[in-house]
TrEMBL record:
The lineage of its organism: Eukaryota, Metazoa, Chordata, Craniata, Vertebrata. PANTHER family: MITOCHONDRIAL IMPORT RECEPTOR SUBUNIT TOM70 (PTHR46208). It holds the Pfam family TPR_1. The gene is tomm70. It is found in: Mitochondrion outer membrane. This is Mitochondrial import receptor subunit TOM70.
Length: 565
């Protein structure tokens, strides 16, 4: 299920709006005193001519009228003309003159001159000089948006992403998140930082077994998965017929023991028992390889999973069902690694070798949705339903695919048709929790909040241990009633049910950011990071965490805080 988006910051929240512009110089006002000086100088000039002498250089009195600030402004204006003409060396010299002429107490003007010189250095790609001059400007005027943003861009060019993020975060807050340019830079840097950190963290992370609820939900998405089926007659321990022989077979097979542990939800022992079967070259080697690979994927160790999946796929004596299942799982792994071409190849190969396997079309349909190929996704769901008419999950996901296509395409008649389809699904499959959950998301989009709330209640009634449903219901309370207390209570309940639900920690962290509780938000994001099931998920979570941390640094440096709930 797709996670709901965090609440957008609200504009008009009382945050100061800084309106900064370059000063164009103060006009000189010629008053009575200036006229007197002018007349006096004319008189002296006449007197000098009468005496045949010239007492003062021409124009000296006019220069005496200009204050140091006026002279600095004049130098700046000259620099602006050079800048517009693309003569950056001359512009830099003029701005340097303006800086040296400007009185130190004129901080606003001085900060402008530094920022202007930084702009000229930027045109020459002199990033270090840009940073130095912008830093001077910001020191003089801590909320100078132009200087902060120009420094952020220069820091990015030099690869200093952390400080770049802090500067662009300050800019976003000052602009009340209304400027697309600064928000795009923040997003770009956050993604880069997230990918870098996730790559390092994921490579060295400790494997972590997901919750039993997650594992059961994962296996429930397969109908033709041999390894997830219960032990068959003759495989179980302590059966009455030929008990002694059967117990010997059971005890000698690591794979059968692993299957028994699956039924007992003793998941931590499965990988080791499968390894025993594989190393002994037992009867169930192919099945053990696939089961071990599946649990490697579940604990987030795709590096260990891939060789096992490769072996099963290339085993001529393995059943078609096993090989197709391995292709589905490797294809899903490639999609998590953002390799859609390899993923598509595996799903297509699975369809070729086992064309009547409903799981192939079901999971390929989900892939197509992620690739925004909705029509192809619907075709795959239709094929799955044709092979397994009782597949409630495929029916519900087909409705959701059609709904998203109609909703994003702004087609009201098709939206209504998809909503009617959801009604039909929950009528025919009243025990399918996923049908209610997907319908609830569509109802929320349509702002039918009361009906959506009822659908989530149905989900909880059918699957009281599904933590994700509580998170979605909590988010609904925020959007519907702005009931922060109830929303947080439901998300806390999700964590209580499943303390390994990364989605719950992520959502809680997002809400705490909106509340201004940045330290708590960072703690929630870090918990989610440790539970992330893929490098891509981890990169996203690091981006959220880094955004929150940047806000704490901006608050310390400049006293700036974004709007809060």
């Amino acid at each position: 299920m797709a996670a709901s988006k965090p609440v957008e910051p609200q504009s008009g929240s009382g945050l100061p709006r800084w309106q900064l512009a370059l000063l164009v110089g103060t006009p000189i006002v010629l008053g009575v005193g200036a006229v007197y000086l002018w007349n006096r100088s004319r008189g002296k000039e006449k007197q000098g001519k009468k005496n045949g002498e010239r007492k003062t250089p021409e124009g000296s009195e006019a220069e005496m009228i200009l204050s140091p600030l006026d002279r600095a402004q004049s130098a700046k204006n000259k620099g602006n003309k050079y800048f517009k003409a693309g003569k950056y060396d001359q512009a830099i010299q003029c701005y340097t003159d303006a800086i040296s002429l400007c009185p130190k107490e004129q901080k606003g003007d001085l900060s402008t001159f530094y920022q202007n010189r930084a702009a000229a250095y930027e045109q020459q790609l002199k990033w270090t000089e840009v940073i130095q001059d912008c830093s001077q400007a910001v020191e003089l005027n801590p909320c100078y948006i132009k200087a902060l943003f120009r420094r952020a861009k220069a820091l990015e060019k030099l690869g200093n992403k952390k400080e770049c993020l802090e500067d662009v975060t300050a800019v976003c807050i000052l602009e009340v998140f209304q400027n697309q340019q600064s928000m795009l830079l923040a997003d770009k840097v956050l993604k880069q930082l997230g990918k870098e950190k996730a790559k390092e963290k994921y490579k060295n992370r400790e494997p972590l077994m997901p919750s039993p609820q997650f594992i059961k939900s994962y296996f429930s998405s397969f109908t033709d998965d041999i390894i997830s089926q219960p032990l068959q007659k003759g495989e179980k321990k302590d059966e009455d017929k030929d008990k002694e022989v059967l117990n010997y077979c059971f005890l000698s097979s690591g794979y059968l023991k692993a299957k028994q542990y699956m039924e007992e939800e003793n998941y931590d022992k499965i990988i080791s028992e499968c390894t025993k079967e594989i190393e002994s070259g037992g009867r169930y080697t192919a099945e053990a390889l696939l089961l071990r690979a599946t649990f490697y994927l579940l604990i987030g160790n795709s590096t260990a999973a891939q060789p096992d999946l490769d072996r099963v796929i290339n085993m001529d004596d393995a059943s078609v069902k096993l090989r197709a299942n391995a292709l589905i799982k490797r294809g899903s792994m490639y999609m998590q690694q953002q390799q859609p071409q390899l993923s598509t190849q595996d799903f297509n190969m699975a369809a070729e070798i086992d064309p009547r396997n409903a799981d192939v079309y079901h999971h390929r349909g989900q892939l197509k949705i992620l690739l925004d190929q909705v029509e192809e996704a619907v075709g795959d769901f239709d094929e799955c339903i044709k092979l397994r008419p009782d597949s409630a999950l495929a029916q519900a996901q087909k409705c959701f695919a059609l709904y998203r296509q109609a909703y994003t395409g702004n087609n009201p008649s098709q939206v209504q048709k998809a909503m009617d389809g959801f009604e039909d699904v929950i009528r025919r499959f009243p025990k399918c929790a996923e049908g209610y959950a997907l319908y609830a998301q569509a109802l929320t989009d349509q702002q039918q909040f009361g009906n959506a709330d009822e659908m989530y209640d149905k989900c909880i009634e059918l699957e009281p241990d599904n933590a994700t449903t509580y998170v979605h219901k909590g988010l609904l309370q925020l959007q519907w009633k702005q009931d922060l207390e109830m929303g947080l209570e439901l998300i806390s309940k999700a964590i209580e049910i499943d303390n390994k639900c990364d989605f719950a920690y992520e959502t809680m962290g997002t809400i705490e950011v909106q509340r201004g509780n940045l330290d708590k938000a960072i703690d929630m994001f870090n918990k989610a990071i440790n539970l992330a099931k893929s490098e891509m998920e981890m990169a996203h979570l690091y981006s959220l965490c880094d955004a929150a941390y940047a806000q704490t640094e901006v608050a310390k440096k400049y006293g700036l805080k974004p709007p809060t709930l």
